[in-house]
Design goal:
The protein is of the alpha+beta class. Helix content is 25%, strand content 36%.
Length: 346
């Protein structure tokens, strides 16, 4: 009797467990979100603006010296002394670094002794050859050896002169790369030199926008915390891009003592929009400016469309082809969209 009641209790407990699990499964299933692919997606849109007057495209760059470079050692040696300090103004020909030239001076003295001895031999053999006392070939060999010795002397003298490393142009020493006592090798830089009197703005412009620049073009340049723009002139447009397909564009600046190398600069081109062009916010672009696309909303349906754009500044892009004034482009919520999706918007 007791065993029968035990089995009934176990069966009841098992049934209760099954019922509880079934109820839990039903609750979990009801709570799971099921996406309705036919439900419209909420997005934010903005109407395109017609082109017209105003500021043109903006490009960020850096103020750099027109002339700058590293001063190199041309002969090996130990640094005896530094002729300048960092930040010092120098003139062309001023001493930058003096190298130890003792070994070269010894070589120069040896070459001078050899030249002097051969000059005496040449005089003696010339006299003897005139009297037919020696063969003419001996005089020719002496003359050839004398020419070789003079070339060696000139070579050593030239190297000795290059132990004094001098400024190649007027400018400012921006960095010293050696110290007294250090040993340098040929082609090793010893200092960095730049001319702060002539400055320019260097831009790196992508392949889509470089066509907007023209030689001699006048642009506006603002830099640092200065609110008043300067006038610059495009004087160089690179014809070879880097690995990121960016091209160097250089803007010449008028002389201004308040401008220093290293300042960030913004270059504004004259407006290039026409009556049939519109602008859109840059955040509406899908992908990159190399192959730009946008979602356009028409009749509550989002369509993905390719367009052609150019930078306009202030976070906007000039649409050169693909849109017209009044078109609604998606500015947020595009991550959930697909071509042909139904949308609601504000």
């Amino acid at each position: 009797m007791k065993r029968w009641m035990l089995w009934i209790g176990l069966a009841a407990l098992l049934a209760l467990t099954v019922v509880k699990l079934a109820m839990n499964k039903r609750t979990v299933t009801e709570r799971v979100y099921r996406h309705d692919k036919h439900a419209p997606i909420h997005v934010t849109v903005e109407a395109t603006r017609p082109g017209g007057a105003g500021q043109g495209p903006r490009f960020g760059g850096t103020v750099v010296p027109l002339r700058e470079g590293r001063v190199m050692a041309e002969v090996p040696g130990r640094v005896l002394r530094l002729g300048v300090r960092e930040g010092q103004q120098v003139r062309k020909g001023d001493l930058i670094v003096q190298l130890d030239g003792d070994l070269l001076r010894l070589q120069q003295e040896a070459a001078q002794v050899q030249v002097a001895a051969l000059e005496k031999d040449e005089v003696r053999y010339r006299t003897l050859a005139a009297a037919d006392a020696v063969q003419g070939i001996q005089l020719e060999k002496t003359e050839q050896a004398l020419r070789t010795a003079r070339i060696q002397l000139a070579n050593v003298t030239e190297q000795l002169g290059r132990t004094s490393i001098r400024a190649p142009f007027d400018g400012e020493v921006t960095q010293l790369l050696v110290e007294e006592g250090s040993v340098v090798a040929p082609s090793m830089p010893v200092a960095a030199l730049s001319d702060p009197r002539e400055l320019e703005v260097l831009l790196q412009v992508n392949e889509k926008d470089v066509a907007q620049f023209q030689h001699g073009q006048t642009v506006q340049v603002t830099m640092g915390d200065r609110s008043t723009p300067l006038t610059g002139t495009v004087h160089s447009i690179g014809r070879r891009g880097d690995v990121a397909n960016r091209f160097p564009v250089r803007i010449a600046l008028s002389a201004d003592t308040r401008i220093v190398a290293g300042l960030s600069a913004t270059v504004v081109l004259p407006t290039s929009t026409t009556a049939d062009q519109v602008t859109i916010p840059a955040r509406a672009l899908l992908g990159s400016t190399i192959a730009p696309e946008v979602y356009v909303v028409r009749d509550s349906v989002a369509r993905r469309m390719p367009i052609a754009v150019a930078t306009a500044g202030d976070g906007r892009m000039i649409v050169q082809q693909g849109l017209k004034a009044g078109d609604l482009v998606v500015t947020s919520g595009a991550v959930s969209l697909h071509d042909g999706a139904r949308v609601t918007y504000r």
